[in-house]
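Final report, results section. Input specification for complex C-07:
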Amino acid sequence: MRDLPSGPALLALAREVLLSELMPLLPEERRADALLVARCMAIAQREAATPETSEHGFQDLYGAEADTDELLGRFARDLRIGAFENSPDRELCARAMLWRLTIAKLRQSNPEFLAANGFDQPGGVVGRAEPCPSPVSGKRSTPSPAAKSSS
Amino acid sequence: MPLRGGALQENWGLDARFSGGVLDGQQRLVLRSSAATGVAASLTRPQEFAVQKAAFAAGVTVAEPLFATEDPRIWGKPFFIMRQVEGITAADRITGDPAFEPALCMIAEKLGRELALIHTIRPPRSDLAFLAPYQEVGLTQQIAGFRAYLDRHHTPRPVLEWGMRWLETHVPPTAEPVLCHHDFRTGNYMLDGGTLTAILDWEFAGWGDPHEDIGWFCCKAWRFARLDREAGGIADRTPFYRGYERESGGAIDPRRVRFWEVLANVRWAIIALQQTDRHLSGGERDLDLALTGRRATECELELLMLLDAGGNCADA
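Structure output:
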């Protein structure tokens, strides 16, 4: 059992101190660096708080249980040669997996970019994580003009 | 003093005094040399100098290139010197600062004209003989290069593989090659108030399809604070296309642009991963480089949005 506050909570607090208390003390030319530090902390905080999932739907495509890293490599190789193009169901399933993988990564690395593109917003779709092989569907909300993130 | 900007090159501001000659008197100059590590596709500085000279002669708004040398005894590595130009390149400011707002539409049209001028430079050119023939750097070779890189990369990238598969099954007819800047985007031009003062960073220039540069300029990665403004985050495509078409006298083919925009996302994703390799490989311990690789996933989302909008096949 680890002591509290948790690692992610400590990172969140440290980031808040950096942005609200230390940043104003920095010379102008170093503030961009501080924003990069804050962004690193936010990513580390989100990654620490979210266990890496091995559930991306690979079994829908490949059936057999296998190591996720191995299946990710196989999935990439199959996409390279168009292995799913002769089966509409498998093609649909593959695309749904691509959406799932991408959105899961962006939720950790840049959720603001997702939101700016209309994902994960109230009224928009929560990613495109429908189970295979249902069609990828849903409506995004209107994208926001701003996308850059320092978080 | 070192100047900001240029992740792959070093730029140094120089105040120099010349006695006699065409540069007689005080001059403000920039010395440009390579950073410690780079990416494979980059030209050498003397080659970049030659490209910039060709662009200057073609009437492109570019800092006048003055001297270049391969001799490492002077600066420790090859470099070239150009005139210093006033202005800012900060993409977040250009796309987000209301002070620029009134001029942005006109700047987009001007940039279209500039790009058309760059594209008037066509092979064969003895002064640019170092540029690889288009047949050797065309689409097939680019995709092969991307795949070779991904084969060595530590993590599989299924979306990039899928995007490249789409590209190779939707190849447009070959175009007559022109000089492409290959990094023509917001962040690589300089504005002084509402005036365009220079097109910068010619290190990736080479022969290519003219729509390559248009697709790159409009790629979402270069819209910064304004994703909704598809021409470099500064305007919609209309003024940019209008400027290009008026200067070139030819029509832009939106389908070809879309194709190259898909490629732009794949290309920028690969470059982003390579940038982080520079950090991971130990050559350059740098926070910005360490983070850049994560932007590859932003390109992957854009690929999905371009090719699978609404979950439908985008072959139509």
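The domain at 2-83 of chain B is CATH 3.30.200.20 (Phosphorylase Kinase; domain 1). The longest helix of chain B spans residues 254-280. This concludes the modelling results for the funded period.
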